[in-house]
Amino acid sequence: MKYCEDIRIVSENGYVVLNNPHNGCWIKLTEECFNYVNNYINTESEHEDFINQFDLDSRIYIEDILNKLKKLELIDYNNKNELVSVDIAITALCNLKCLHCANSVMEFAGEPSTEELKSVFQILSKIGVKTICITGGEPLVRKDFFELTEFARERFDKLCLMSNATLINEDNAIFLADNYDDISISIDGYDKKTCEAIRGVNVFDKIDKAIRLLKNAGMDKISVSSVITSINRNGESAFYELNEKWGTVPILRRFAPVGRGRDNDEKLFKEMFIEDLNGRSINYKKTEVNWGFLPQYRTTICDAFMSNIYIGSDLCIYPCGALNLQEFKGDNILKIDNFYNYMRNKGYRETSGYNNYKSIMPDRAPYCSGCKVYMFCNTCPAYMYLYNKYGYLEAYCKSRKTILEKKIYG
After folding, report:
1. CATH number of the structural domain spanning residue 95
2. Within a domain: 167
3. Does residue 265 contact residue 394 with C-beta atoms inside 8 Å?
4. What is the mean pLDDT of residues 223-242?
5. Are residues 44 and 142 in the same domain?
6. Domains identified in the chain, total number
7. Taking CA atoms, which of 17, 20, 160, 350 is between 20 and 30 Å from 97?
8. 159 - beta bridge partners?
9. pTM of the predicted model over 0.85
């Protein structure tokens, strides 16, 4: 019996919090209870001899805690560390110029060739990757998009597409429905006005038409995502109603001040951010976003380099799409001799990109040092990094730390 790999243990005010950073599960124990459990796990003697020193009620209590720790995978955790899904930006080019686009930082990279992408698909399929998400830029701008799709479809169990939907039409809707298991469409608003304020004229109508075409072609797994900005922040209810009307799954995402998002953060982000800091708590139900509230079930986790990686349009490995920045750039997948051994032996740990990524994780980041609630304040380390990089973190932290300390240790 042993603690999970990289377990986080923090103590404050007579309590100890244990957290598995790989699945987000956590538990709070009294210091007295934790000491018993810790001694039990670390004892060199037989566990049965250790537990028998206590009276019956204490044994039952400690064994109950141990069962909970196992259920939450805080002890005896089997981290397979298998790469199961990969996001691939097959292009950095796009037919839109959305105000908030973070991926615009990759526009310099252009497009890999058809044969290069086929080689990437071959490499990933040979090591057992099950799911591929094709993204961009806008994937449909590529002239070889249909060829690449057919090539990937033959090699992976699940094929996903992220698109702005403006190039979906009567000629390709059936092809997309036949070849993709699910399609995610970006809208970034809740009606024509808010969508087009960010994405451009006539985009909303094109999305509406694309969804109807996909539905008619038999595609029933469509999600619609919206990045929350100052323009659309008051429309969460309308966003859910719109998705209900379309029969799509709503996904809300946080704003990332990167690329054109950084250029336009005064307009798209700052006003909303200041309102939130001044007490306007935004709680987006039915989504992964939990702005300003303590996540009920999970702490900060990140599956980058464990079960998921992002391959940029430069064919280099990045932790995720939110961190496709030069400082997190890893090796070019086509220049790795044996990708299976590379992943199994964690060869990526030798890259500066990986080490820069690890340095922003909350248990290592200097801006989280000494904090007793660092693992609860945000479920995505990328946003904490970006807030710090662009000067928002101090205000963000100040507004939440006291509240979280009361919720966790009060």
Report:
1. 3.20.20.70
2. yes
3. no
4. 93
5. no
6. 3
7. 160
8. 132
9. yes
